[in-house]
Design goal:
Blueprint lengths: L2 E4 L17 E5 L8 E5 L2 E10 L2 E9 L5 E7 L9 E9 L2 E10 L8 E7 L31 E6 L2 E6 L3 H18 L4 H5 L1 E3 L2 E2 L2 H9 L4 H5 L4 E9 L5 E8 L10 H8 L2 E2 L1 E3 L4 E2 L1 E9 L6
Parallel strand pairs: 1-19, 2-11
Antiparallel strand pairs: 3-4, 4-5, 5-6, 6-9, 7-8, 7-10, 8-9, 10-11, 12-17, 13-16, 14-15, 14-19, 17-18
Helix pairs in contact: 3-5
């Protein structure tokens, strides 16, 4: 499903002189006596683990706000400053995909000096659908862990520098994350058996109009404070296409940014309800990410 960018986005180019330099790589393994932790938090699921030595630790987290292949990846630690706020960072999740270009957004996290977050699709390149893909599904979407058996690695690289995290037992960890995200759906009051029979997700038929409305309503106090944010929107859509419930959760913490997205959807959205294997409408949900960004030159 799609994700909105609100605010003005412009790209600036500059000429640089490339000077050959020796490649540098930092390789990290999990901190001794630690394991993957799955946090069944309110409104989201978090998979986390510490890496590195006790006096120089890194924290890696995958957050999900609904079932599917998408997660928000947050990495905090000393060397992550090299990637903060940078475009065209190459992200590799071996053995699923290599050198996928992403933007590493800056984020504050606890006592860590530097942290980044990335919107990530956990799927092989040839199977990645993108967030603007169609709404056809085979039951509740989930992360396919069949190709993650054995050793896995996650790497950030930019120019001649890279940082790599060894990810042991990642398949089992993602299976636990899948279980947590299914529990989220149950906590929304939806029947898991009917969701497993779903073949088409709920679809807003006037999404372009909704996106334009949200883009026009950047919260003024947040704009003056130059506050940016990523938010997770979730709507319960009844079998007749009506909106039963709407909620917005913070992907990144904010002080002033209170999105009007639920008001806009409630006032204007029109939905085609989800359908089961017989084409019958069923009660289900619609979820997407909303990204607020301000042009640096404003």
């Amino acid at each position: 499903m799609g994700w909105f960018r609100t605010g003005l986005l412009c790209a600036a180019t500059a000429a640089t002189l490339a000077i050959p330099a020796q490649a540098e790589e930092v390789r990290l393994t999990p901190t001794a006596n630690t394991s993957w932790i799955v946090d069944y938090a309110r409104g989201k699921c978090r998979l986390a683990r510490y890496f590195g030595e006790e006096d120089d630790r890194y924290l890696l987290m995958f957050d999900q706000f609904q079932p599917g292949t998408y997660a928000t990846l947050t990495v905090a630690g000393r060397e992550m400053w090299r990637y903060v706020g940078r475009d065209n960072v190459e992200l590799t999740l071996s053995p699923l995909f290599s050198a996928r270009e992403v933007r590493a957004e800056a984020v504050s996290f606890g006592d860590f000096r530097s942290a980044v977050h990335v919107r990530l699709e956990v799927a092989p390149e040839q199977e990645a659908k993108g967030e603007s893909a169609g709404y056809e599904v085979e039951g509740l979407p989930h992360i396919d862990t069949s190709r993650l058996q054995g050793n896995a690695e996650l790497s950030f690289s930019k120019r001649n520098r890279a940082i790599t995290f060894a990810l042991p037992e990642l398949a089992a960890a993602f299976n636990a994350l899948n279980t947590c995200s299914r529990d989220l759906v149950s906590s929304w009051g939806l029947d898991l058996k009917s969701q497993d029979r779903m073949r088409r997700q709920a679809e807003p038929i006037n999404l372009r109009e909704i996106a334009e409305r949200i883009q026009q309503q950047y919260p003024l106090q947040a704009l003056h404070a130059r506050e940016q944010a990523s938010l997770a929107l979730r709507i319960i859509v009844d079998a007749d296409g009506s909106i039963e419930e709407c909620s917005v959760n913070e992907i990144t913490s904010t002080r002033y940014l209170h999105s009007p997205a639920c008001d806009v959807f409630g006032d204007r959205a029109m939905f085609v309800p989800a359908q089961d294997e017989h084409g019958e409408p069923i009660k289900s949900y619609y979820a997407t990410a909303i990204v607020y960004r301000i042009d640096a030159r404003r």
